[in-house]
Design goal:
mainly alpha, two-stranded antiparallel ribbon, globular
Length: 548
């Protein structure tokens, strides 16, 4: 929570008042003369508040900041050569100045304050008796959603359910348990009051609230409750697994029934969240979904290759650990459904004998015999060229590329924005939640049954039997491996490892590049310096242990 106050022009900012900046107090002219007190007392005006409360999710989902905080710095991703936040990925002098953490702290506390304001004002909004509990359910879901990110990222930090309307110069340190109590209260209200479907795509539904509540129960070790809530979602016929895992990632299939909760990005990029000095001065500097940029290896300087729309704009931020690539058996179609290994010649300038469409680059997790390589016209980057014998990275420019988020529908080859929606919770995760809960309750057969539903879907033709697991194979580490195979890159991995108490162990075991600087205190992130500078009770609201 950023506690200095800035009075902004316009209705949305008037509802926030604090939390938008850590600079000194400013006064700006509001030419409309409208205030939150006048606008949010009409149903139409209150709709703008609720809609605005959703938009802050876009600061995390589909954005580089959110990928770095939620996915890297784990057992499955390490730094590519273009990494911007190596301090998050490899814990290299991670401190309070980290810009990704600063941005997310600011935006998510602003989101919480807007939700608090909406919940406190809803009685005077003039909503119908039917609509009122739905809108409150949305706001309560969103408040729980934002607080979960906050408490898991930073630990025991500032908590309030009251709207901030003036200068506040102190912050509290609230125990995690207290924050989770509110999360559960809000989510139970959402489950009880949200409809099964919503007329507007991307709005939270009862099923989405149930799925997120199941995740929260699992996080807090409430396994019986997690199982019951997951089973309620699995019984919902509005949701259905895709028959083919790879089909999940087609741009033509963004409205898949497997997606339970999504962050919706518009095909009209102008109305997403790109910062604009006239219309959206508080937007993101890159806007829309950027996931398509971040996992791509550097291919466009290789012989026979040039940058194009289909292969994407390679920011080369993150590369898979060798451990992640080895998790997929040859029977598992999720590897080919998640990663790309072959780049075909697309340049007018090519090596002699190489035609358009021929293989130009092959990056593989396997070892290729030198004698075979010598007979090929294309470049090969195999296991021993990408990784050292101990699993550390040898080449952080070329590697199998996560292809889930690629977007060949972009208008130009350098377009950084994508209209791809972000799948925040998929039905597959609910199966894995149910499996983990059953395992912890001692029901290994039931746990294996849930996992085998996903492994049956993932099996290559004729390999279904080989992909099945027995109850004795179900352990917490196996489930974490399965979650990696199914959910790699989907902005959940750091939270999975933290909630299971496996973060430090698995980084040290499986991600040697990330482990070099890892310390025990890295299970929470540093509080942004902007926040520490803003408070006056500095002796009470201090930096998280281990950070400066």
């Amino acid at each position: 929570m950023c506690l200095s106050i800035v009075k902004k022009t316009g209705l949305l900012a008037l509802s926030l008042l604090t939390l938008l900046s850590c600079k000194d107090t400013l006064e700006e002219f509001n030419p409309s003369g409208l205030t939150a007190e006048t606008v949010y007392t009409t149903p139409e005006g209150f709709e703008t508040l609720v809609n605005a409360a959703y938009t802050y999710q876009r600061w995390w989902y589909g954005k580089e900041e959110g990928y770095n905080i939620a996915e890297t710095g784990t057992d499955i991703w390490t730094s590519g050569s273009g990494e911007a936040y190596r301090d998050l990925t490899q814990y290299l002098n991670l401190q309070s100045s980290n810009a990704a953490l600063t941005n997310e702290w600011r935006e998510f506390y602003a989101a919480v304050n807007l939700c608090n304001g909406g919940i406190s004002r809803i009685d005077k909004a003039g909503l119908s008796a039917t609509l009122r509990p739905i809108r409150e359910g949305e706001l309560r879901f969103l408040r729980a959603f934002y607080y979960w990110h906050i408490v898991e990222t930073w630990g025991n930090v500032h908590f309030t359910t009251q709207e901030t309307n003036g200068i506040v110069s102190t912050a509290n340190r609230t125990p995690t348990e207290t924050i989770y109590n509110q999360i559960f209260e809000d989510l139970k209200f959402a489950v009880a009051n949200l409809p099964v479907t919503q007329p507007r795509y991307g709005k939270v539904t009862r099923g989405a609230a149930q799925a997120f509540l199941a995740r929260m129960y699992l996080t807090r070790g409430m396994n019986k409750e997690a199982l019951e809530m997951a089973q309620a979602v699995l019984a919902n016929t509005n949701y259905k697994l895709e028959a083919n895992y790879a089909d999940l990632w087609k741009m033509s299939n963004l409205k898949t029934k497997e997606a339970i909760y999504v962050v919706d990005y518009s095909t009209n990029l102008a109305i997403n969240d790109l910062a604009n000095s006239t219309f959206n001065p508080y937007g993101h500097n890159r806007g829309s979904n950027n996931g398509h940029l971040l996992f791509l290896m550097k291919y466009d300087d290789r012989p026979g290759m040039t940058r194009d729309i289909a292969y994407g704009r390679p920011f080369n931020r993150y590369m898979p650990t060798r451990f992640l690539l080895d998790l997929y058996s040859d029977d598992d179609a999720r590897y080919e459904g998640s990663f790309m290994e072959v780049w075909r010649a697309n340049s007018t300038s090519r090596p002699a004998g190489m035609n358009l469409g021929d293989t130009a680059v092959y990056c593989t997790r396997k070892e290729i015999p030198d004698a075979f390589e010598a007979t090929r016209k294309y470049q090969i980057y195999d296991r021993s060229k990408i990784y050292n014998a101990n699993g550390t990275v040898k080449d952080n420019l070329r590697y199998p590329t996560l292809s889930k988020f690629m977007d060949p529908t972009r208008a130009s080859l350098n377009e950084a924005q994508s209209a791809r929606d972000v799948f925040v919770i998929r039905l597959a995760e609910v199966y894995l939640i149910a499996a983990e809960a059953q395992m912890k309750l001692g029901n290994l057969q039931a746990a294996a049954d849930y996992i085998n539903v996903l492994r049956t879907r993932a099996a290559k033709a004729g390999k279904t039997a080989a992909m099945q697991i027995a109850p004795a194979q179900v352990t917490l580490d196996f489930i974490l491996d399965e979650r990696a195979r199914e959910l790699a890159g989907e902005q959940i991995r750091w939270f999975d490892l933290k909630r299971t108490g496996k973060l430090l162990e698995r980084i040290r075991t499986y991600a040697p590049d990330n482990a070099v600087n890892l310390q025990d205190y890295h299970v929470v992130r540093p509080i942004p310096q902007t926040q520490l500078d803003a408070v006056t009770n500095k002796s009470e609201f201090t930096q998280n242990q281990g950070y400066q």
